[in-house]
Every structure is written in structure tokens, then in C-alpha cells.
Amino acid sequence: MQEGLLKEGTPVKIQDLTLRDGHQSLFATRMRTEDMIPIAERMDEVGFWAMEVWGGATFDTMHRFLAEDPFERVRTLKRYIKKTPFSMLLRGQILVGYRNYADDVARLFVDKSCEVGIDVFRVFDALNDFRNFETVVERIKANGKHFQGAICYSLTERRMGGEVFNLEYYVSKAKELEAMGADTLCIKDMAGLMSPYDAYILVSELKRQIKIPVHLHSHYTSGMASMVMLKAVEAGVDIIDTCLAPFALRTSHPAIEPILVALSGTPRAPQMDLKLLIEIGEHLEKIAPKYRDFMGQHTMSVIDTGVLVHQVPGGMISNLVNQLKQANALHRINEVYQEVPKTRKDLGMPPLVTPTSQIVGVQAVLNVLFGRYKMVTNEVKDLVYGLYGKTPIPIDPEVQQKVLKGYKRGETPITGRAADYLEPELDKVREKVKGLAKDDYDLLICSLYPTTGERFLKWKYGLEPMPDEVKPKTLEEIQQEDKVLQEVKKTFRKLA
Questions:
Q1: In whole angstroms, what is the distance from residue 474 CA to residue 467 CA?
Q2: How many CA atoms lie within 13 A of 385 on its CB side?
Q3: d(Cα 85, Cα 15) in Å, to the nearest integer?
Q4: Does 249 share its domain with 150?
Q5: Residue 165: closest CA among 357, 351, 358
Q6: pLDDT tens digits, one per residue of 241-268
Q7: Does the residue 249 lie in any domain?
Q8: 257, 273, 304, 337: least buried by Cβ within 10 Å?
Q9: CATH code at position 329
């Protein structure tokens, strides 16, 4: 058999993202635990390096829109999945929220996450400022868990290179993480911007320069991710991220099934049962209609070719569109696309990932609608002040002066670790939710999400009725909706 470049090496390991980033990417993180349980034991038999089941937007969405206790999901799945390690996506000091939290919150969150069953912590920071890792990494290590240090992948120009996001930048950041004690290194391509040949160059160089295993994560948004994974495997990447086919592609990740077949017969082929994966996928196909209301169906294409041009991630685009719609200014979307890179450079070239993608995007829209920095969000003020950390390049001095004029914390930016300027939070929250929060898990929910967290606890303990919109839909209800829709269509045909 022709093996091409794959003449040597060990089987590539695979982390499955189906139960977290798969449904987060495709239908707004709405998958319920009840739909995970039927496939949990079979997924445990596949032989994944790890399964990502938590973190990212799951914590927010579960308590807010699904009326589920986020911690309980991990406990529940652990009863069925006993061999495969659980991983989560942790936003550094931002944890699973949208701002930096005080150290006492960060410590307790990591400790309790370990307690419920998280084994691998993929830690990233939106600015690649690894000072924002310090507190959480100390607790990950203290609990004897796996610290995967992640670098947010971004571009200065169409391909890797230029003045900021070049090969030297990524190698330097990788060495920082290795020195921090990372057990593995992840390159996190959240927007699907990485090209296949850049993947080969980057992975090859990382394998030469660092000793810890290299893990690659790339969204399918631009259509390049499967090619990226194949070239990364050729370059010697140790671990890759995929999803089961029903939850793959579009803004999600490469599908595992074709990758297995593509690598079959080579030394790097994972030893996994393709038939088992297809059987598990059949369950996902069966329950998928329950979540169809959250799936993007506005285009025929399964990729976003616009990303190849403007490099704006898909999730960020939807936010820009919604903001412009609310202002009755959707016709100005191209102006916003042109403004985004300018605003981004003004604000220090942050990688466009949560929360910086939202911060840059909202400000770009305001700049187009009202004039540049005539109106400034609080989040931009916090970013410029330094509360999110150090940006990859210095913030434009004129913009800094304009943004921080009259800012409540002061007009001179901080230069230290952001959390060092935050007061402890837990005691205040504990006093506020006294009598409502029953344990530290409840306390954390309210610490991370004060308003919606308290509302959730009232649902959880029967103090307020649970609204219908957070209750799960059944397949029978979906079938009934389809039946009604068909009747309506028949009626319209008769009238026509």
C-alpha cells in the first residue's frame, strides 16, 4: 500500500469533542445530558485519548437555558464512562465566564471540577498572556490532574507570518508553556484559519523545539481543517481533535470516520472500530431533530468562505449581523468587515476568541455607526486598562488615551497580572446567597453567573416554577410539529 509521507511513527491519538465543542459549534451548546447517556458506555469503548465533555459555553448554557446543574453532568457521565479521561476547556482566569475572576473563585472552581471528575484541563487565554494561567495551573497540579497549555492560533496576514503571529511567536509561546509545567501543548485554531502547509511547518518545528506532546485543535469553518489534520499527522502531531460525523463539519470539527479511513494501513492509523463509531453516530442522527431550531440553515454551503477573506470567525460574524440588525444597519456589514482589522490592531492585535472576539466586534460596529471611539464599551475600557492581560502588541497610544479618559479605575493602564488587582469574591457571594446555595457547587454557580445562577438555584430547589422554554423537547413533540407543518403546507397548496 502507498503510504506517502507516513512511513513511520506511532498511531495518532484522538480526543473526541462531540459532547462539548461539537454541539456548542453546531447548535448553541443545547445538547442535554439525557441524550448523552444512551451512547456514553459505547463511546467509552472507542479508545479516545480523552473526551471533552465540559467547559467553554456549557456551564453558561446548561444553567441558563437547559435548567441543568453543570456539575451534575460530569458526575452523571462518569458513572457510564469509566475508562476514558474527561477533559474540559478552561478560559484561564476567566474560567467558564466572560471576565477575569478573583483568585479565590478560580481556586475553588478548579478544585471542585477535579472533584466531580475532570481529568484534563485545556487552559487558554484570549490574549495568550500566560500570567492568567498561574492560579488555575497551581490547583490543577495540586490535584494531580493533566495541564494542557493552549496557544490561541491567529494570523497577522493570510498565512502564518508577519510582524506578530509568526512561527517564532508560536515556538516562543510553546516554550513558555513547557516551562510552566504543561503536560501537553495544544494549538487552538478556534476560527479554522490554519492552512495545511502552515500546520505542517508549525507542528514540525514544535516537535523539534519542545519535548511535550503536541495536540492540534482546528475548526472546520473555512473548510481546511481535515487537510490541516492530515498534514499535521504527517508532521508528527501526537493528538488531534475530531467529532463524530453527525456533529462534525460546518463550524465544528473534522469528522473522525474519514480520518480513520484515510490513515488506515499506515503506522499512524488509530486502532478504532469504524463500525462502532457509525453505530454511535446513528443515535446522534436520531436525536438531532430535537435541536434543529438552533442549527444554522441560512446557507447551502457547509463552509464559510468569507473566513478565508476577512478572517472573522463564524460566531463573531453572527454577533456582528445581529448587532447591525438591531440598529437597522445591516447594509453596512462590509464597512464593519473593513473596520474589524483596524479596531483589532488599535486594541493590541488580540486573537479573536471568546471574549476578545466579542469585544473587538462590538467596538468595530460602534466605530462604523457612530464614528471611531465616539462610543466605547466598558469591556474595551477594561481591555485597554489591562484587566484582561497583556495584548500581543501595544495598544495604540491615541486610542488608549481616548478610551481611558474618565475611566473609573484610572487613566494609566496596569501592567501586572490582572487578577492581582481584583478583590476576593467568595465571601461576598456566600453572604448574598445564604440560605439559597446549599454547597460550594451552588456557590460557584452564583459566583460565575450572579443573576442567572440565583434564578437557576430557585428552579433547582423548587422555589420558583421552571419556565416551559427551558424544559426539554421530546422526539414525539418534534414529530407532532412536523405533522402540523405538513398539514399547513397541504392547506396552502389547496388555496394556491
A1: 16
A2: 20
A3: 10
A4: yes
A5: 351
A6: 999 999 999 989 999 999 999 999 999 9
A7: yes
A8: 273
A9: 1.10.472.90
